[in-house]
Amino acid sequence: MTSSAKALARHAQCPASRNHGPTFGRPFHWTLGLGPWSFRGAKHRGRGFTLLEILVALALVALVLVSLNTFVFSMGELWGRNNDLRLFEQHVRAVTRFLEGELRSAGLPPSASGTDATIAPREVRAQNGATDNLLTFELREGSRLIAWPERSLPEVVCSLAVRPNEGLVLLWRSRLEKEFPDMPAHETLISPLVTAIAYDYYDPDFRRWETETTLRKAAQGKMETPARLRLTFTYQKLKQESLLIVPVAAEGLPAN
Q1: Tens digits of per-residue pLDDT, 16-46?
Q2: pLDDT band at 241 (very low <50, low <70, confident <90, very high)
Q3: CA-CA distances (angstroms) from residue 104 to 17, 98, 138, 232, 237?
Q4: Which of 17-31, 93-107, 173-187, 203-217 has the lowest mean pLDDT?
Q5: Strand 194-203 relative to strand 208-212: parallel, antiparallel, unpaired?
Q6: What is the mean pLDDT of residues 173-201?
């Protein structure tokens, strides 16, 4: 028996051949239903997407992009708000450290007596001609914040004042300037964010702190030196208070 005859005999014994007959001489199709394993099913699945499916997919993509965009903008806004807070706190700390260093460096003037204080209220004339009692101290070597019009001078008398819509101002003048006794003080802005200054006095009789918005006078009419300074920093909705301890007279050094 030839090989062709043997193949025909095996095909005759197959149940599918009895139902459909021989497949020699005509195209052969797998007809196991229209599922994923039939050629007809594969041909049906390759027809592409309908217009409705494309519109649904585009709507989903747009929804995801809108949600992502909202998330990114909200995170950026949150980061910007936190960045403002960090910069504000850094500014408060920097100004506080600067003033603490200046107050610790305060010394007695050359003509001071043993009872004089290194930091005390004194009457100071501003550039506009107005006079006011301000907390005053003397820096023998001057301050790095001061910008002299010419060469820098030592023995600088400094005072602190807070002005509305301007901030914390340093009023200063050197004892070596020609018109020192009568001249108005120069002015340098320390911080535009300081909106208020207050003075703390300790009452040993009642063992409590008392806060005043202006320098206090004693019973004899002499101005009292506060034990602490309170600076209020404000920026938009941010607000913070800084406390500075005023060094006592014993910590001061004569400016020889």
Answers
A1: 444 444 444 444 444 444 444 444 444 545 5
A2: very high
A3: 110, 10, 10, 21, 32
A4: 17-31
A5: antiparallel
A6: 93
**d(C-alpha 4, C-alpha 24), whole Å:** 11
Q: Give 217's DSSP letter.
A: B
- Six-digit token pair at 141? 């070597």
CA distance 196 to 234: 9
* C-alpha to C-alpha distance for 256 and 252, rounded to whole angstroms: 12
Q: How far apart are CA 121 and CA 135, in angstroms?
A: 4
Tokens of 60: 């989903």
pLDDT score recorded for residue 156:
94
How far apart CA 142 and CA 113 sit, in angstroms, is 21
Q: Given the structure tokens 């027809």, which residue do they identify?
A: 47
> Would you say 170 and 185 are in contact if contact means Cβ atoms under 8 Å apart?
no
Q: Could you tell me if 108 and 254 are in contact, meaning their C-beta atoms sit under 8 angstroms apart?
A: yes
How far apart CA 238 and CA 88 sit, in angstroms, is 8
230 vs 196: CA distance, rounded Å:
8
